[in-house]
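Q: I'm writing up a methods section and want to include an example of the input and output format. Could you take the sequence below and give the corresponding predicted structure tokens, formatted cleanly so I can copy it straight into the document?
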Amino acid sequence: MIVRSKIIIAFASLLLLLTFLFPLWYINLEAPQYPEGIGLEIWINQITGQKPNDLTNINGLNHYIGMKTIVPNAIPELKIMPFIIIFLILFGLIAAFTGKRFLVYSWIALFIILAAVGLYDFYMWEYDYGHNLNPHAAIKIPGMAYQPPLIGSKMLLNFNAISMPDISFYILVIAVGLAIIALIIDKKSKGNPENV
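A: Here is the clean output for your methods example:
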């Protein structure tokens, strides 16, 4: 693999460090009683409110309709995700320094598999919170579930729930895109020794 491609892959790997600084996903709740909206930011290692009291307010609302309390420290994925990111960084750097195309392809495949598993896991987490309701809740509507959408918006009572990727998600997409570009550049350079 040519030097330029190795540098791009190393840069793509190190770019993943930024995922520790920005949210991965967000869920907004819009309703007349909350004109400024309330929401959650889901990071690779924590869940926070978009504003200081949002998580507390959302847990309060959830209590009335029988949803479980969101306790970030009790969610195992938030403890595992940082190690997955560190592994991906190290794997990418090894692929860059060795210049083995097979490792780069494996890195990209691993990204895709982890993204698919992560989205499925997030969907199941939302499903559990939205469907497994406390039968003794103050507000009970027969047949009503409160699962927010995986991507997009959905009306839940008088709340419009909006769930979308955030900055760290796009950082991950850019990293994969850079790795693909590096492979394309390397492939085009074969047979042209001046391209190093």
